[in-house]
Each structure stands twice: as C-alpha cells, then as structure tokens.
Design goal:
The chain has 237 residues and is an all-alpha fold. Helix content is 72%, strand content 0%. The chain has one domain. The protein has 11 helices and no strands. α5 (95-104) packs across α7 (136-159) and α5 runs antiparallel to α9. The longest helix is centred in the N-terminal third of the chain and has 25 residues, at 24-48.
C-alpha cells in the first residue's frame, strides 16, 4: 500500500511539473515556482491547518533547513526545465537521493541495486552522445536541485516528527533513507512518460533501456526493504 501511495504521489508531481512547464512562456520559470508555492501554501493552510501543530525549540533548525532546501530545490528544478526535457532533469536531480542511498547503506545487497540504478542513470543521461545536446547550464541547475533534494531527505526525517503527514510522507513512514533513495529511481520513469505524453519530449531507445534498468533496481530495493529498520522519509512536492 505504501508503494502504491508513493507511485500516485510521483505521478501527480510529474504531471504538475509538466503543466507548470507549459506556463514558462507566459510567466517564466521563477513565476511558475512562485505560483506553485503560493498554491501549495494556500492548500497547506486550508487543509492541514499547521498552526495547530506544536513545534519545539529543537525542531526549528531542522524545519528551517527543510523549508529552505525545498524552496531552493524547486527553483533550481524549474530553472533546469527551461532547457532540459522533464525525464533528463529528473534523472540528473536523482543524484541527490542516490548519494543518500550510497552513504546510508550498510548491507552488501543494497549496493547491487545502487550499482544497477547508477548504470541506468548513466545510460539515461545523453551527455556522452554527441548527437544529443544537453544544455550545460540546465545540467548544473539540475545537479543543484539534486543536492537540495539530498538535504530535504536528511532534514525531512527530523522535521517529519513536527509536521502533519502528507500523502507521500504517509507512504514512506516505514521506508528507511537508503531504500527511499533507490526506490525514488523510478521517478525518471514517470518524468519521461509524462514528458512524452504531455510535452511531446522524445527519448532515445538507449534511454528507455536505461529506464528498464532503473525499474529493476526499484524492484530489488522494494524486495529487500522488509529486512531494514523503518524511518520516515519524505519526498519533494
């Protein structure tokens, strides 16, 4: 059930990103981020009523880093989307949670899934192919978003005990950080499919093969998740 909720959340996130990208010609990437943040804030206030949540003095630091990393991540992500396809942007951004997975893993079998996911990402990124141009500035923005995503994961674990659970946080209350990091490798799959369906962004055959490798890595980490201790880890919105 947790995996299903996670898939629903990822699908909605990528659909929202593709819709926001269609607004770039009207309001620009910063404008799209502002609109999304304003709408999310309004929904947060109306639905979750965060003022009812008690926040201890020790939670403010984690909440501050959590909020700043989320805001900067979304800004850099949308800046990258100006010149990169949705699937490529998410694949590069995933280096953040993949790094968390590498640093937090202690079981040999987890490194097998990490290697498989990394190999898929290496094929998914067309940097080594001369016939496919990847904008350098957009790539840097995507890597920056990935770094913020890593901070979001680490500090989200601490902030999660002071914030109401959203859909993705409910789904991940029993998934450890390293499992989350590899399982989120399926995000480029959603991004590539949504980009193809809604934005008509085409990926090469080799890149679709890479997506299949990433799916296998996700299946592997889901299979081994039951043997690991639980801890709440959120995903970005």
């Amino acid at each position: 059930m947790s995996v299903l909720l996670l898939l629903i959340a990822m699908g909605s996130i990528q659909t929202g990103a593709s819709l926001a990208k269609t607004l770039f010609h009207s309001v620009g990437a910063p404008g799209a981020v502002s609109l999304r943040t304003a709408l999310a804030t309004l929904l947060l206030v109306l639905v979750l009523r965060p003022w009812r949540t008690r926040i201890t003095s020790g939670s403010w630091r984690a909440l501050a880093v959590y909020g700043v990393s989320l805001g900067v991540m979304n800004f850099l992500y949308y800046m990258a989307l100006r010149t990169l396809p949705l699937g490529i942007t998410v694949a590069i951004e995933f280096t953040g949670p993949l790094a968390v997975a590498v640093l937090s893993s202690h079981r040999p079998v987890d490194f097998l899934w990490i290697v498989l996911a990394a190999a898929g990402l290496a094929l998914l990124l067309p940097i080594a192919h001369a016939q496919t141009h990847v904008d350098p500035k957009g790539t840097l923005f995507a890597f920056g978003a990935g770094a913020c995503w890593a901070l979001y994961i680490v500090f989200g674990k601490k902030a999660g005990a002071a914030l109401p659970y959203t859909l993705e946080m409910i789904a991940l209350t029993r998934l450890p950080a390293r499992t989350f990091g590899i399982l989120m490798s399926i995000e480029p799959v959603f991004a590539a499919l949504v980009g193809w369906l809604m934005l008509h962004e085409q990926l090469a055959v080799l890149q679709w093969i890479a997506i299949g490798m990433i799916i296998l890595a996700s299946i592997g980490t889901t299979w081994s998740a039951s043997a690991q201790p639980a801890s709440p880890v959120p995903m970005p919105e």
